Amino acid sequence: MCRHIAPVGHVMADEAVTPHGIALVVASQRRGLIDWNADTVGVVYAEPDAGNCRAHCVTDQPLPAAIAAVRAEIVAQNQAPTVVYDVHERLRTKHSAFGDNAPAPTETTGDVALYVGDEAHYLWPSAVEAAIKLLDAAGMHPVPIGVGQSNGYLAGSLGFPDTASRQATALLNEVQATGARQLIVLSPGDVFTFRQLYDERLGIDWPAEVELVDLTTLLASRVADGSLAFERLNEPAAYAYVDPTHAVRVPERFDAVRALVSAVLPTAPLELFWRRERAHPVGSTAVQFTRPDIADALTRARLEDARNAGAEILLCEDPGTLFHLNRHAASMGLRVQGLYELLAERLI
């Protein structure tokens, strides 16, 4: 019952790549009606793993996790697209699909750690600098961890759970080595990965003694209690907030992040049609490698939504989402602004 919210079905106008279509392909292969080939495998790798289908499933079926498991079978049978193995090799040897020079794990200790990851480190590093400045202003001095290191989401989504487990274990070992009792994260994708994916897909427990904290929720609470304040913008530009990829997986943060945005804008931000619980992803998941046509279509659809709402400048906090929006924004007359950077600039 999630067809109405399926992002790939919307942007590609192809029933084969809706949740029902993908599940039907898998079921047909299971029944011996079709074989894995370039076309059928391409359908399986069209699912973005952004959570929309499960968020709107009336019986809470974990279709994205099931598809990741099917991809693992396809990988083991050497039937996956060549690019899947190429990306996996980078994840295995470079610890990221985006860069080559991930720093060694930190040797610093502290009560609070900040997961940087590889998207922020390589694709949108200004978000990290801004986040640290904001946390310092809040009296928290985090130890950056996982710098340039994937958290395991991408490897698991592509069909390599063993690599995902190794990356998850390495990250948890680094958290333990810092002695941190709080781990702050930059995006809803990180919240989902640590809080849910590790358990459901990898059988790895998040350490009970480490509190997982979403940065936007933390900052919003500090604004509410008066311990953080920002100078409001006075420019007349029309700002819109874009819910990032994976936002539907962490619905409890919808109001908090909007309160944070409103703390720095002169008026409430414009809202997109595909927002909050029906927010569509951009192409920042595995589809950027396996189906770049779908990745670009998803991203352009978000930009078109923003333009239709009358926006000129788009605000978002997630580094991966910002990177993909920024790739196409200028061609559509839009500008992209990192939320953390804007807040850091306007600190009082």
Describe the 3D structure.
With 348 residues, the protein is α/β, with parallel strands linked by helices. It is built from 17 helices and 8 strands. The longest helix is centred in the middle third of the chain and has 18 residues, at 161-178. The chain is globular.
Summarize the structure.
This protein has 348 residues and is an alpha/beta fold. The protein folds into three domains: 3-93, no CATH class; 112-221, Rossmann fold, CATH 3.40.50; 229-345, Rossmann fold (3-Layer(aba) Sandwich), CATH 3.40.50.
Descriptors:
single chain; 3 domains; Rossmann fold; 49% helix; 17 helices; 348 residues; four-stranded parallel β-sheet; 8 strands; alpha/beta; globular
Radius of gyration: 20 Å
Tell me the strand percentage band: 5-15%
**Which residues form runs of ≥5 with pLDDT under 50?**
none
CATH topology of the largest domain: Rossmann fold
Topology of helices and strands:
Blueprint: H1 7-12, H2 19-30, H3 38-44, H4 52-55, H5 63-76, H6 82-94, E1 112-116, H7 117-123, H8 126-137, E2 143-147, H9 153-158, H10 161-178, E3 182-185, H11 188-202, E4 211-214, H12 215-224, E5 239-241, H13 254-262, E6 270-271, H14 287-290, H15 292-308, E7 313-316, H16 319-329, E8 335-338, H17 339-345
Parallel strand pairs: 1-2, 1-3, 3-4, 5-6, 5-7, 7-8
Helix pairs in contact: 8-17, 12-13, 15-16
